[in-house]
Design brief:
The protein is 35% helix and 25% strand. The chain has 577 residues and is of the alpha/beta class. It is globular. The N and C termini lie far apart (65 Å).
Length: 577
């Protein structure tokens, strides 16, 4: 601004007073001009301008359409929920928003309306237009066609997006929790970053684990550290793909509250997928319901969730079941560990238990109650400190405390186990995962027929079973991979099947299908099931009897509905949805 200062020829004292007044007027004038400029920029941006626009997005894999002509607008600061059953396209859309190359749309546009620095190309959401960048440059409005943009814009936008993938605990396993969070912070002084990392870990309720090595954490704890790492990046867009799918209800509630406090309440735009309808109600401002790659409905979370739940069937009721005799017999089984810090740890402390042929038996309890240790003892993976554990094979009882081919080695081939942290062979097809990869050698045509029959049992229809047989696991959704893992256990037709958290990543519809498939497998194959779960609703639907464990002891065995009455307030909070 060219400022002409007129010399006023009065006495010196008057000259000084006038110059001071002129300087003040100039200061207020420049301040007013800045306010007017910002106001004009706000008018230019428009109060309701969308942050991200999806226009006619279509995506196919191997000729199969997984997203079909999607049109969605995401406002800055809002939370968009994507609801739908397993395989509907939720994870594909999340990875597409992230900019993962394999998920580039076949047609359509993904438009980002951003503020970008004219000096360093740093990217911010559109509300920052007109502000000054950290480098001193000015943030200017720009519209970017994400998947058709130049490499620099594409990379700068990707830098500002954080993502939490389902069942992906991406941590530096050998480093401590605090070191993992600090690694996510690229800029700033170490001391400032340290205090920031401590605040984030306190927010996700992991401040009591800051010096623990990442590999020693439980699944739920790892998930919370991953969340702290993503929040440390201060993203402009936060993507969460089934962030609480495998967690118990209370840990899931911790994570939901953290997402509300650390992301939503800070005005960060978020897109979240979930098969838990209550997550949509708590977190999402707007929800789209996807089915088979198409938007069935979009609108307010309460309305869409209500309509989605109307499509969830009820589990089939089972008539009286005839059980055979006992196939597992446990007497006074104990497993004690010794620690210098904590002394004797009684993981399992004097358990008596019997499970019948053709029975579905549940083991429930809080984390640390001993249920996982007991299940490992039942199949010979953990040796008891004392007591008897026997499994019936034919007419003979086998002592599971004795190793070798004449001891528990005889029984192990007839026991199927699905761990909570299961894995499939990543570079083998679904058909190979169900046959060759698990040493199930069958004629080719019979192997295919058996694989399809088993996939039907875990909720896939005939047409879709044929479609996925030649797919690799990374081409399936998280829920689909989980069902294939259950099929991998069922296809060998074991006498006893142990399922650890079998419904962790499943939507309500698929959970009912798996409930029905377990009941069907029991009816057709006369198999015995042991279900370890924190999902009491699922246990009530599927189990004949349930054992409640607390402090390494079995407090009560009985009908699941009666077991619910024995839960403490803490257990009710953590185990009942």
């Amino acid at each position: 601004m060219n400022i002409i200062i007129l010399r006023v020829y009065f006495n010196n004292q008057i000259n000084i007073t006038i110059i001071i007044l002129l300087n003040r007027l100039i200061f207020y004038y420049e301040y007013l001009i800045k306010i007017l400029l910002i106001y004009n920029q706000l008018i230019f941006k428009g109060g309701d301008m969308s942050f991200i626009e999806l226009k006619n997005i279509t995506k196919t894999f191997n000729g199969v359409a997984v997203l079909k002509n999607l049109n969605v607008e995401i406002e800055e600061g809002n939370v968009l929920g994507i609801l739908g059953r397993s395989g509907c396209g939720k994870s594909v859309l999340i990875n597409m928003l992230r900019g993962t190359k394999e998920y580039k749309p076949d047609s359509g546009q993904m438009i980002f309306n951003i503020a970008i620095c004219n000096k360093c190309s740093h990217v911010e959401p559109p509300s920052k237009v007109g502000e000054t960048c950290k480098c001193g440059g000015e943030l200017k409005a720009k519209t970017v066609d994400f998947w058709n943009s130049d490499r620099k814009d594409f990379a700068e936008i990707r830098k500002r997006i954080a993502i939490m993938l389902q069942r992906n605990f991406a941590l530096y396993e050998r480093e401590t929790v605090i070191e993992n969070v600090l690694r996510a912070m690229e800029e700033g002084e170490y001391e400032d970053n340290l205090y920031k990392a401590l605040d984030l870990l306190d927010m996700v309720q992991m401040s009591h684990r800051i010096t623990h090595v990442a590999r020693d954490l439980s699944g739920g704890e790892k998930q919370r550290v991953v969340l702290a790492r993503q929040m440390a990046k201060e993203p402009m867009l936060f993507l969460a793909d089934e962030p609480t799918g495998t967690l118990d209800p209370q840990t899931a509630e911790y994570l939901h509250q953290t997402l509300i406090n650390g992301v939503k309440n800070k005005g960060i735009t978020m897109v979240i997928t979930s098969h838990w309808p209550e997550v949509m109600n708590k977190l999402a401002d707007q929800v789209i319901w996807l089915d088979n790659g198409e938007i069935i409905e979009k609108g307010h979370s309460n309305e869409v969730v209500e309509h989605f739940l109307e499509t969830v069937p009820l589990p089939k009721k089972v008539d009286e079941v005839e059980y055979g005799g006992p196939v597992i017999d446990v007497k006074d089984a104990k497993k004690h560990y010794y620690s210098i810090e904590r002394g004797v740890i009684k993981a399992v402390d004097g358990v008596d238990l019997n499970i019948n042929k053709n029975e579905i038996f549940g083991i429930v309890g809080l984390s640390g109650s001993g249920k996982t240790t007991l299940s490992r003892m039942l199949i010979g993976l953990t040796e008891p400190s004392s007591g008897e554990i026997k499994v019936k094979l034919g007419d003979e009882w086998i002592d599971m405390t004795k190793p070798g081919p004449l001891g528990r080695g005889r029984v192990i081939p007839y026991i199927g186990l699905l761990h909570q942290e299961y894995s499939l062979y990543p570079y083998r097809s679904v058909l190979e995962n169900l046959t060759d990869s698990i040493s199930l050698e069958l004629p080719a045509e019979f192997a295919k027929m058996k694989a399809i029959h088993t996939l039907n049992a875990v909720g896939f229809d005939n047409e879709y079973s044929n479609t996925i047989l030649n797919k690799e696991p990374n081409e399936l959704s998280g829920g689909e991979r989980h069902r294939v893992a259950i099929a991998q256990v069922l296809i060998k037709e074991p006498n006893i099947i142990i399922l650890d958290e079998p419904t962790g990543t499943m939507d309500p519809i698929t959970r009912v299908q798996v409930t029905d498939s377990i009941l069907k497998a029991r009816e057709e194959l006369e198999q015995s099931f042991i279900i370890i779960s924190h999902d009491m609703d699922f246990v009530i639907d599927v189990c004949d009897r349930t054992a409640l464990m607390r402090g390494g002891k079995i407090l009560k065995i009985g009908d699941p509905k009666n077991i619910v009455k024995e839960l403490t307030p803490e257990e009710e909070e953590k185990m009942l949805n």
